[in-house]
């Protein structure tokens, strides 16, 4: 029993159990565990409540997608709504070469759809770049067929391509956009801000199959670019363009321009230049083709400025329409320089100075005017000023300050030398003769009929007299018989100017004609300029007037302007004008 | 008391099922709307393409060519023209 008791004692009393541990150790462990829990709770509080953006975003990105909704660029149309420029979506096919492992059969199908050589395709796919475009801007139908092949590593995205159905006919007017869709020339540049579309965005939840399940968050709707409706009439534009082109080819000229303006509203109905280009295919473009000459190039207009000098002299009362001016012997010496008429005239009335286009006559009338008076008038009709059409690169032309004019300069300016203007400035200036003395602003876009804010330059009486003189220039005895339009009375003026080359007047010419019809109540102004005709004829009445006649006639008929004369055409030989 | 609880449980289950159905219908309708909007966009694109095609076919040079060459049309000479007077546009 004793033994038993001893044994039991031994078993019951393990030395380990006899160890008396200090009490703080257990408390320490408990405390550590509590602290660890507190840290966990604190961290989760931090992640869930205080700084939850990061995880929220990570969670969202598993199912939420931000989509961009593309907006298209505005269309450009003519005044009747015919499309001149339109954007249409195209697909671009891209590849990630590392992922694009195609069977020979697949790559052959792809090459056939892309219309490329299979070898060329294989070469592209073997490239070590991480991303390549296989073909940009292919039609959506072809792209769908490619998508249906479900090729690995081949994808597509949408791009917009701009089309210009009227091509070279309206190239300078409409301009074009670059590869990034920004306007680079013409109306595309001038109205860039209106035409530009602003893409929208939306965020959505997508399911496993990639279908959109729900809209979340706010939607920003896309804003398509505004459509621009130009004042241009594509029928008249075509007439103007084709006639100009024909005349330039016939006369083997270097360049040319034509502008048609509605005298009632100041709208530019047509504006064409040669040489031109095809805006749909701009691979071989040179600066010369791109230039919108009618707006960006100034030239010495020659005799087309005479009516302004005469109108000013009439307005100031220095001459009457029947005042005799002695133009014999066809030469006039001012200082060291001599002005001459190419065909000497005797005494002429003021009206005949315009009709026969006498330089000597114009110079003698200019001598009755003060330099400042002439400068003020040129300034008022817009010479030496930006025409403010809104076109890129508009020139002001050259009009020197009157204080530095020498007498010979004032004389030459009276018949359009020593001063330079652009074709559009010249056409605009003629609105004063078409509108009873009022100069109006021009507009590229279609205008609603309304009150125009013009500036009165000449009195209606003066303008009626000048218009009668301009009508004589087109009738037998005048310089521009070929400007006649069957069925309408026409008023206009020819111009044939020597070109200034290196400070010297060369034997190269700029032939021009500016006119209006119907003369009783002018509706249209047509200005034609042909640079360096070199097939023998170079007078404005021979080269530019026929263009004027066919364009004016067809345009008036297109617009349905009632005829104001019998359709019989007066015949006879045109008198040779002075230069 | 038990009966009331049972009733509430049945109502809760009913509501839950209704929510599921409503959600499902909403998604179906949303997908239909998406499809229609997609269709509208496609039609808009097609409209643009047709407009482009129309203007390409109707360019004045083409019309003139067909009129002159195929239909043998020409501008009447002034001598053969009679102007109807007094018709203002």
Task: Give the secondary structure arrangement, pairings included.
The complex is a heterodimer of chains A (579) and B (89).
Chain A: H1 2-12, H2 15-18, H3 24-50, H4 53-61, E1 64-69, E2 76-77, E3 83-95, H5 104-114, H6 118-125, E4 132-138, H7 140-148, E5 154-163, H8 171-174, H9 186-190, H10 192-195, E6 200-206, E7 212-220, E8 228-229, H11 234-250, E9 255-262, E10 268-274, H12 287-290, H13 293-296, E11 298-299, H14 306-315, E12 324-326, E13 331-334, E14 337-340, E15 347-349, H15 350-356, H16 359-366, H17 371-380, H18 407-414, E16 421-422, H19 423-429, H20 431-434, E17 438-439, E18 455-456, H21 460-474, E19 491-501, E20 504-517, E21 524-531, H22 540-543, H23 545-559
Parallel strand pairs in A: 2-8
Antiparallel strand pairs in A: 1-6, 2-3, 3-4, 3-5, 6-7, 9-10, 9-21, 11-16, 12-15, 13-14, 17-18, 19-20, 20-21
Helix pairs in contact in A: 11-23, 14-16, 14-21, 15-21, 16-18
Chain B: H1 2-57, H2 60-70
Structure description:
The complex is a heterodimer of chains A (579) and B (89). Chain A is of the alpha+beta class and 579 residues long. Helix content of chain A is 35%, strand content 22%. Chain A contains 23 helices and 21 strands. In chain A, strands 2, 3, 4, 5 and 8 form a 5-stranded mixed β-sheet that branches. In chain A, strands 10-9-21-20-19 form a 5-stranded antiparallel β-sheet, with helices on both faces. Chain A is elongated. The radius of gyration of chain B is 35 Å and the shape is rod-shaped. The model of chain B has no long low-confidence stretch (mean pLDDT 86). The chains are: A alpha+beta (579), B mainly alpha (89). Chains A and B meet through strand 3, strand 7 and helix 11 of A and helix 1 and helix 2 of B. Chain B: One of its GO terms (biological process) is FtsZ-dependent cytokinesis. Chain B: One of its GO terms (cellular component) is plasma membrane. Chain B: It is a single-pass type II membrane protein.
